[in-house]
Amino acid sequence: MMRFSYSRPQTIAEAAAALAADPSAQVIAGGTNLVDLMKYDVTRPGTVIDINGLDLRGIAVDGEGTLHLGALAANADTAYHPDVESGWPLLSSAILAAASAQLRNAATNGGNILQRTRCYYFYDPSTPCNKRRPGSGCGALNGVNRIHAILGESPDCIATHPSDMAVALAALDAVVRVEGPAGERQIPFDDFHRLPGDRPDLDNTMERGEIVTAISVRPQKFGQHHTYLKLRDRQSYAFALVSVAAAIRLEGDTIDELRVALGGVAHKPWRRKDVEGEFAGRPATRQTFEAFAAALLEGATGHGQNDFKLDLAPAPSSVPLSRHTPVPRRISPQRWCSDGPLGFSHRPAPQPRRR
Amino acid sequence: MAPSVSHIGQPRNRVDGRLKVTGAARYAAEYQANELLHGYVVVSTIAAGRIVAIDTREARAMPGVVQIFTHLDRQGVSWWDRDWQDDTAPPGHPFRPLHSDRILYDGQPIALVIAESFEAARNAADVVHVLYEVAPHQTDIHAAEADQYEPPKKREGVPPPPEPRGDLDQALAEAAFRVDAEYEQPSEHHNPMELFASTVIYEENDKLTIYDKTQGSQNAQQFVSAVFDLDDVKVVNAYVGGAFGSGLRPRYQLFLAVMAALKLKRSVRLELSRREMFYLSYRPITLQKLSIGADSNGKLLALKHHAVQATSLFEDYQEAVVNWSGLAYQCDNAAFSYTLSQVNTDTPGDMRAPGAATGVFALETAMDELSYAAGIDPLELRLRNYAERDQNMDKEFTSKALRECYAEGAEHFGWSKRQPTPRSMHDGKELVGYGMASGFWDAQVNKAEAKVRLLADGSVEVLTAASDIGTGTYTILAQIAAEAFEIPIDRVKVSIGASDLPTSPVEGGSWMAASVGSAVHLAAEAIKTKLIHRANRHHEAFLPIASADLCVEAGMVKKTDGTGPTISVAELMQAAQWDAVEETGKAGPDMLQMQKYISYTHSAVFVEVRVDEQLGVARVKRIVSAIAAGKILNPKTARSQILGGVVMGVGMAMHEEGLFDHGTGRIMNHNLAEYHVPANADIEDIEVIFVDEHDDKVNPIGVKGLGEIGIVGVAAAIGNAIYHATGKRLRTLPFTIDKIIS
């Protein structure tokens, strides 16, 4: 960890000015991600701008029924807020699927959507990583990539965005409010995070000097027809291998509106509004949902160790939607005894797999 | 003295519990000293090659930096391997930190930064620039396996594979049912709560007091004395925050901290980071191959077990992996083999039930496979093949209550509700699976001494260099002494965890309670004998009584039959003008008995898993672990030991795996966010049962030790339950979701 200077601005304008003025400056809020990254020598801010003095902790519903989450409101306070629990339960459950109670108490909403990837190579400064050190290469592409992206990745980066909250916000068509030297603007959630392309160092579309001030979510119309489902390597305190935020509105037996965002599969929450649109008006059957999952995952590619995600992702993408319909066997029984010749098998070199 | 109190067999709270929860118990990195210096280690980022240059100029110029040590400026230390070989070292050339420019594994310590603060040291460590010449490395055992070899020199204390017996090939050919399968286990990495740390207090003339995280203060003391040729070294490990075998060998922070303290003539603290824990000793990557043949009734005819394990380039670390297959079940035709393959890692090391956790996983999975092949209930299959004798050693068991483990475990679990066919049990959208396995571990006694001192006020002191790595050693030693003198447990003061106390072995192998506990018991008995002799010889009323008819009971010397004269111990000591009566007890293996008998602990593990049919998510719903381990000194600390072992078994089955990038030879998930161990949510119901097992041969107090047995068999039982639930047989650990849906 390097030495750094520290400032604690009292207004958003001061904070934005300080951030814009110093290219090496970084913002700290809950500190649950930045401090780790500094300890691991992944990032070396020359200045740490502590924004905890800013008045951004509010959680409120306005006259039009839109929810406004202050950037500095804690994840736990958000998830357990009565208005959020009653009006945006999908958001509550996504937040509570993440991290641990201690982390949720400290982590903020702004920090949550700005958290960096958990790619092993990003976290290990002795390895190449285009996101951490542009131009150094991608260690994960032919390395340990069990947790990596299968959609929207580029030859330069196959990292995923680790947030659960962001997946729900994507499904809920949230808006991120930012403020910078050029003033305020609102970024639709789908445009907030970006795919890696040839600039994986950029996680999102914020301009230098901009600070997240709030996240706004319009009232949702899905009643109880929503779910956040997270598949992971242990039942708590693990990042998603695949997660899904799904919400559906039915008109009789017909799909009126369908929104599905996937986590753990791409550099941003993965949502295909075009595919959702195509499925509006179709019958709400298991077959429809499976076809939807297939379309949502179109173009998915494995990189070796994460090939299993191609098989893992379809079920959570369709099952929550068709909870009332029977689903066929997925786990095929195997013979009890191998009949191959003795001798330890050598694993073949992983080949990229395309579905 | 207090009226008669029973302590042994009672569920006592830890005597050191309050110290621990209040933070008063101090650990190695918590000791302070005047002008204490702090270290931070720089580790290699390549797996093989040579250091061409280390540029420390920028780091040296940083504020607070005192010195940076590299291989270029290490000081004179012993050249002899034997000085570097601690009590638990495997054969080979022990790793010597900063010895040369050679890189043997990724994460190897290559420089030590010493600064006035921890932050300054860490800060400077980031700007130590290293230029390497990279050489080819190998971390993939599948590739290294081609060069497997039998270790020419055997590791002390680890039995080689058993001799072959009978005619294996013919028996296999005649078998009605056969299982031939391969099993794979990844590296598992030690992550006790307390990180490795040494605080070296330097005094004039190179006198050192070292607070070290170790499982053996005397082992560490002898290592430091031999390597640095010092004669005034004391090592203290009063409290140890978990170790599980990782602290058996002195770790490199001890060497480096001592080196820096001697060179700078100042006190030094060096604590490793969590990341460095992943580059240290680990449970070795293992490939196993088993062939089992059985007759039409499921009786074993033939068993063949081969294992190849990873070791480092410089030491032949060894475990008893295949041996368990030779003693678990009656089988007259068997062959065993065990080899090593070298990989570019640190030398693997002992991790809770080393060898057994690994070997029994394969054996007990194969037995489960056989049960389905033969159409016999898995529990019934094991009963049909019950071993009444250890065929490996051709010896009798001092005791073996495994049948009782099976019976009581099955009863508590509800094994009779199991439907034999895989995939036949459901609960809602979940498939339900029942699985079971047996467990085995050695019940050993090691050479140990303990001093017991009875004071005039009736209180008792116990002194021995034993360690308490969180297992409850303080508590059980206090119980044994309190029982002997029939006093309340708080009247016993236990002093352990320092190298200048009476000789104790390292805390490992599940032998601590049996060895040191026996020594305390023997010392207490010797004190009683001394008191009896004193009464017998110096007090008139006792002169006509044969000493054999006398006893010490409830603080009184009296006749065993309760008639005749009595004298209180206090009166006796006062008359003799004794401030204290002190004796040393020495325990050790009974060589004569060992010619005929051998001792093991046993377990039966029953597991229910639930597998979400649609999503492939598996969870371990409940576990019943029935244990036969002789006398249970303290059911409370004993249960905690088994619970911990079972949880670690869940981790082995479901989570733990070092993810190597074989291209760079580096472990990539070197932190506790990405190296998964069970979280609370992964652990549901665990029931521990101790079955009655009387053993008057294993040692004077009839206990067998509990440190390891809890983990053995758990992974197999879970895998067997997953098979029963899904019909999918998993043979590669851990059983992550990708394997379940594949």
TrEMBL record, chain B:
Molecular function terms from GO: iron ion binding; oxidoreductase activity
Listed Basic and acidic residues bias regions: 143-157
InterPro entries: Ald_Oxase/Xan_DH_a/b, Ald_Oxase/Xan_DH_a/b_sf, Ald_Oxase/xanthine_DH-like, AldOxase/xan_DH_MoCoBD1, AldOxase/xan_DH_MoCoBD2, AldOxase/xan_DH_Mopterin-bd_sf
SUPFAM superfamilies per record: CO dehydrogenase molybdoprotein N-domain-like, Molybdenum cofactor-binding domain
Domain Aldehyde oxidase/xanthine dehydrogenase a/b hammerhead: start-end pairs: 22-136
Superkingdom of this protein's organism: Bacteria
Region of interest called Disordered, as start-end residue ranges on this chain: 143-166
Protein's name according to its UniProt entry: Xanthine dehydrogenase family protein molybdopterin-binding subunit
Organism field: Devosia aurantiaca
